[in-house]
Amino acid sequence: MSESQRPAPHMNGLLESMSRRSLLKAGGALMSVLVSPIALGADSKILAVRVWPAQDYTRITLEGGDALKYNAQVVKNPERLVVDLEGVEFDSVLQSLPSKITDNDPYIKLIRAGRNRPGVVRLVVELKAEIRPQIFTLAPIGNYGNRLVLDLYPVQAPDPLLALIEKSSPEAAAVGNAPAPERKVDNLRLDATINDETRKPPPSLDRAPPTDRDGLSKPKLPRMITIALDPGHGGEDPGAVGQGGNYEKTVVLSIAKRLKQRIDDEPNMRAMLTRDADFFVPLGQRVQKARRVQADLFVSIHADAFIKPEARGSSVFILSERGASSTAAKWLANKENASDLIGGISVATRDAHLARTLLDLSQTATLNDSTKLAKAVLGEIGGINTLHRGAIEQAGFAVLKAPDIPSILVETAFISNPEEERKLIDEAYQDKMADALLRGIKRYFSKNPPLAKSKLAMLD
C-alpha cells in the first residue's frame, strides 16, 4: 500500500488556497480543507476516470500519467466536495466523468467538471448526504498509473450486524428466510433444535443418535450459525484475469452470491457477504466485518492463477505464519496480499486495534478448527473438479488472520487455465461449486457444533 505523504504548502500556495476558499464561502459554509501542494507547469493528461458506487462507500478514481496535484474542500449547504486539479488538461476523459454517475449512487447526486482558471480543472461533486471523505494518491502499480482516489464514506457506516438481524418477524429471525424448494444436493440438512430438555429428552445411551442420509450425526444447534463469505478483490482490484478477459472479482462474487442464497435457505444458518457488489474492500476490513457479525466461519472465495497456463484444479488454504506449504502457495499468498496495493487504501486508515488482535493462531484452537473445515470443504469440491493438490495447503493470507473465527480460502479453479476459465464463467459450474461448499460447511458442523460466542468476538 502506498500513499504520497505531502508536506505543508508553501506561502504562495497557501495564499492561493485561501483565495479559493473565500470564493467558496459565497456558495456555502466551508467545513474542511484537504490540501496537496500546487505544481504549475505543462498540463498533464487524465488517462482514465472510474466510479465505484456501493452502500459501504463510493470511490472516484482519477488516473494520470504524472502524479496528480490537487486541492479538495468539503462545503456545506448544499453538501458538496470541490476538487481542484492543478496542471491538468480538461479533455474528453474528464468531460465523461459526469456521465458515470448513476441515479442509484448512494452518495453522489451529480458531478460537474470544467476549467476553473488557467491550469486548473475544478470538479464539484454534489452529494445526497453528508460524507466523510478519504482522499489520497497512489503511485503506479501493475497496469495502473498515478491515481488520485476520492473515497466518499457515510458519516454513519452501515452496520453489517443490523443487516443480518433485520427480519420481518421474530419467527423469521428464528428460522431464517422463507423456505425454498428442496435441492437434491441438500443431503446434510442440520436441524435447529430447541434446547429444551422438557420437550425433547436426550437420546438413550443404548441407542445411536439420529443421523441424516449421509450417516452423519445430527447435532443440536442451540443458536443461529453465521457464516462470513468473502468474494476476493473487487472495484479497482480485478484480481486475476483469464485469457478470455474474464475477471476473478466477477466470477467469485457470482459464486459467493449463490452460496449465500443456499446458506440463507437453511433454517438455522445465515450468511454475510464482505462485498455484495463490484467495489474494493481492504483486507483488514474484510476480517473486521466478519468479527462485527460474530461469524462462526470465514470463507474467502477466489479463482486461482499462475504464471503457467497449464496449472489447474481447486485448492483450500488455511493460515500459516511460519512458511507456506509450497512455493506456489507462497507465490499465491503474496499475490493476494498485494490486493491493498492494487485496490488502494490510505495508510491513515489502518486499524491499529485489528493489528493488536492478530494473535498467533498456532497457539489457539482456531487453526485446529480451520483445518477441520478445510478438510470437509476439500473433500466436497474434489467431487466436482480436479484438486490441484490432494491435501490442504497453508500460506500467510492476510484475510485468514481473524483470531477467533475458523477461516479458509478456497481457490475454486485456475482462471489462468483457459479450460477452467470457461468453467468459472459457466453458471452450472458456479452452482455446483456453491453446492459443494455448502455441503462441506454442513459436514464440518455435523461433527463440530458451534459453541457459545467467545469473549474476544464480543469486544468489537
Describe this structure in words.
Keywords: Hydrolase. It holds the Pfam family AMIN. It is a single chain. Helix content is 27%, strand content 23%. The chain is an alpha/beta fold. It has two domains: 144 residues, Immunoglobulin-like (Sandwich), CATH 2.60.40.3500; 299 residues, Zn-dependent exopeptidases (Aminopeptidase, 3-Layer(aba) Sandwich), CATH 3.40.630.40. The N terminus and C terminus are likely disordered.
Write the layout of secondary structure elements.
Blueprint: H1 11-25, E1 30-35, E2 46-52, E3 58-64, E4 69-75, E5 80-86, H2 92-95, E6 108-117, E7 120-127, E8 131-138, E9 146-154, H3 160-165, H4 170-175, E10 225-231, H5 248-265, E11 269-273, H6 283-292, E12 297-304, E13 315-319, H7 327-337, H8 339-343, H9 352-357, H10 366-381, E14 393-395, E15 407-414, H11 418-424, H12 427-447
Parallel strand pairs: 10-11, 10-12, 12-15, 13-14
Antiparallel strand pairs: 1-4, 2-3, 3-9, 4-5, 5-7, 6-7, 8-9, 13-15
Helix pairs in contact: 5-12, 10-12
Q: Can you identify the CATH superfamily of the largest domain? A: Zn-dependent exopeptidases
In the CATH classification, which architecture of the largest domain applies? Answer: 3-Layer(aba) Sandwich
Structural class: alpha/beta
SSE order in H/E notation? HEEEEEHEEEEHHEHEHEEHHHHEEHH
Query: Rg, please?
Result: 25 Å
What's the arrangement of strands in the largest beta sheet?
Answer: 11-10-12-15-13-14
